[in-house]
C-alpha cells in the first residue's frame, strides 16, 4: 500500500516537472504534465506546450505510440483532471478510453465548468481513478489557472527589491540594482506571468525593458504583456520609452484617465484603455485573457495592489539607503490593519549571503 503511494507520488512528481516546461507558454490555459507507466516502466511522456495546442494526455499517448508501446492496461499520471469537452482540442477522456489505459492518477480536479466531468466519464468506462496525489504541489503549479478560471481575475504577484531599511529607491529615485544576484528569479517570475504591471513613474524614472532575459538562454523567449497605470497619460507623450519597443513582440496596455486614444502613439501593439481603478483594471485584464499579473512597482502601485495580491516576492539586499522611497507609499491604515494576511512559504539566500528572497502567500480567509 505504502509502496504504491510512493510510486504514485514519484510518477506524479515527474508529471509536475514536465508540466513546468510549459509555464509561461500556455496561459491562460493550465500547465499540465502526463506520464504513462506500464509494468513499472515509463512508456510515454507529454506536456501542454503552447496555448491551443495538444493537451498533455494526448501528447503522452502519442509519445507512447511513436515509441511503439502498447498502452493497454497502463496507468496514466496526469496533473489535472482530463477534459471531457470539445474546445480547441477534442476530449482527452475519449483518447484515454480508446487507448485501453486501466488506471488514471490525477493531481487535482479541473474547476473549469466547460471542461466537463472527466472523472465520472473515466469511471463509467471501467477505469480506476485516483485523485489528489501530490495535490498541494499540483495546485501550486496550477495556481494561476485555478484562480483565473474560478474568478475571472488574474493571479496577482507583487515583486519588489528593497534595502534593509525598506527602501525601493534612493533619495534621487534611483532603484536599479538594489539586488543583483537573484536576478534569475525575477526573470523566472516574468517568464511565467502573462503581464507585468508598473506605474508611469517607474517608466519615466527607470525606462525599464520589462522583458525576459536569462544569461544562459540563447532562444528567443516569449515576453509577457506590459501594463502601465498612467492616470495622466504622461508615458503616451514619448513613444521612445523602452516598453514601447516593437521588437519585444508583445502587447502594451496603457490604462489612463486622459482622453488620449490609440492614435496618440500610432503604435499597433499599444492599446490605451480608459480606467485606472485597480479592481476594474484587473477585471478588464481578466476579460482580455490575462491570467496572471506581476506587479513591479513603484511604491504607489504596490500600495494600490497589496490588497489584491495573492503572493509577494520580496527581495532584500543587506545595504541601507537611509533616506529614500519606502516600499509602500501612502498605505492607508485601513489596509495596514485589515485582515490581509501573508505567510512565508519560502526563503532563499544568495550565494554571497548578501541578498535574500522571501516568498509570501496570502492566507486563505
Ligand atoms: C490545456 N492543456 O493539457 C489540459 C487542459 O480549449 P482547449 O481544448 O485547449 O481546452 C482547454 C481546457 O481543457 C482547460 O481550460 C482545462 O480545463 C482543460 N485541460 N487544458 O490547455 C492540457 N489537460
Ligand atoms: Zn484535455
From TrEMBL:
Single GO molecular function: diaminohydroxyphosphoribosylaminopyrimidine deaminase activity
EC number annotated for this UniProt entry: 3.5.4.26, 1.1.1.193
Catalytic reaction list: 5-amino-6-(5-phospho-D-ribitylamino)uracil + NADP(+) = 5-amino-6-(5-phospho-D-ribosylamino)uracil + NADPH + H(+); 2,5-diamino-6-hydroxy-4-(5-phosphoribosylamino)-pyrimidine + H2O + H(+) = 5-amino-6-(5-phospho-D-ribosylamino)uracil + NH4(+)
Alphabetized InterPro entries for the sequence: APOBEC/CMP_deaminase_Zn-bd, CMP_dCMP_dom, Cytidine_deaminase-like, DHFR-like_dom_sf, Eubact_RibD, RibDG_C, Riboflavin_Biosynth_HTPR
Matches recorded under Pfam families: dCMP_cyt_deam_1, RibD_C
Pathway note: Cofactor biosynthesis; riboflavin biosynthesis; 5-amino-6-(D-ribitylamino)uracil from GTP: step 3/4; Cofactor biosynthesis; riboflavin biosynthesis; 5-amino-6-(D-ribitylamino)uracil from GTP: step 2/4
Keywords: Hydrolase, Metal-binding, Multifunctional enzyme, NADP, Oxidoreductase, Riboflavin biosynthesis, Zinc
Cofactor(s) listed in the protein's UniProt record: Zn(2+)
Binding site for Zn(2+): 55, 83, 92
PROSITE patterns attached to this UniProt entry: CYT_DCMP_DEAMINASES_1 (PS00903), CYT_DCMP_DEAMINASES_2 (PS51747)
Cofactor note: Binds 1 zinc ion.
Positions bound to NADP(+): 161, 177, 202
CMP/dCMP-type deaminase domain sequence ranges: 6-130
Sequence positions that bind substrate: 175, 190, 206, 210, 213, 296
One GO BP annotation of this record: riboflavin biosynthetic process
Recorded superkingdom: Bacteria
Keyword check for Nucleotide-binding: no
Entry annotation: catalytic residues: 57
Similarity-based family: In the N-terminal section; belongs to the cytidine and deoxycytidylate deaminase family. In the C-terminal section; belongs to the HTP reductase family.
Entry function: Converts 2,5-diamino-6-(ribosylamino)-4(3h)-pyrimidinone 5'-phosphate into 5-amino-6-(ribosylamino)-2,4(1h,3h)-pyrimidinedione 5'-phosphate.
Protein name, UniProt field: Riboflavin biosynthesis protein RibD
Amino acid at each position: 500500500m505504502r509502496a504504491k503511494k510512493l510510486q504514485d507520488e514519484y510518477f506524479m512528481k515527474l508529471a509536475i516537472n514536465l508540466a513546468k516546461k510549459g509555464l509561461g507558454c500556455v496561459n491562460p490555459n493550465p500547465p499540465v504534465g502526463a506520464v504513462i507507466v506500464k509494468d513499472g516502466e515509463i512508456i510515454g511522456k507529454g506536456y501542454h506546450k503552447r496555448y491551443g495546442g495538444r493537451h498533455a494526455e494526448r501528447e503522452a499517448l502519442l509519445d507512447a505510440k511513436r515509441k511503439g508501446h502498447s498502452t493497454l492496461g497502463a496507468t496514466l499520471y496526469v496533473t489535472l483532471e482530463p477534459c471531457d469537452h470539445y474546445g480547441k482540442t477534442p476530449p482527452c477522456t475519449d483518447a484515454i478510453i480508446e487507448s485501453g489505459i486501466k488506471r488514471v492518477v490525477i493531481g487535482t480536479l479541473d474547476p473549469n465548468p466547460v471542461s466537463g466531468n472527466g472523472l465520472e466519464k473515466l469511471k463509467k468506462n471501467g477505469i480506476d481513478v485516483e485523485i489528489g496525489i501530490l495535490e498541494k504541489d499540483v495546485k501550486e503549479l496550477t495556481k494561476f489557472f485555478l484562480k483565473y478560471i474560478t474568478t475571472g481575475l488574474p493571479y496577482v504577484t507583487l515583486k519588489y527589491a528593497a534595502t534593509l531599511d525598506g527602501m525601493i529607491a534612493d533619495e534621487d529615485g534611483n532603484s536599479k540594482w538594489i539586488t543583483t544576484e537573484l536576478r534569475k528569479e525575477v526573470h523566472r517570475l516574468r517568464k511565467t506571468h502573462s503581464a507585468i504591471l508598473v506605474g508611469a513613474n517607474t517608466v519615466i524614472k527607470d525606462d525599464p525593458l520589462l522583458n525576459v532575459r536569462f544569461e544562459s538562454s540563447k532562444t528567443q523567449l516569449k515576453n509577457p504583456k506590459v501594463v502601465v497605470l498612467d492616470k495622466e497619460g504622461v508615458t503616451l507623450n514619448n513613444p521612445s520609452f523602452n516598453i514601447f519597443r516593437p521588437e519585444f513582440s508583445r502587447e502594451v496596455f496603457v490604462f489612463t484617465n486622459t482622453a488620449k486614444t490609440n492614435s496618440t502613439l500610432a503604435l499597433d501593439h499599444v492599446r490605451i484603455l480608459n480606467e485606472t481603478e485597480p479592481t476594474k483594471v484587473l477585471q478588464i485584464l481578466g476579460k482580455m485573457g490575462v491570467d496572471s499579473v506581476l506587479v513591479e512597482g513603484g511604491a504607489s502601485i504596490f500600495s494600490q495592489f497589496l490588497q489584491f495580491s495573492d503572493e509577494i516576492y520580496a527581495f532584500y539586499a543587506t545595504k541601507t539607503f537611509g533616506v529614500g522611497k519606502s516600499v509602500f507609499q501612502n498605505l492607508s491604515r485601513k489596509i495596514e490593519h485589515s485582515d490581509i494576511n501573508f505567510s512565508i512559504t519560502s526563503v532563499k539566500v544568495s550565494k554571497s549571503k548578501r541578498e535574500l528572497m522571501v516568498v509570501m502567500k496570502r492566507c486563505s480567509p
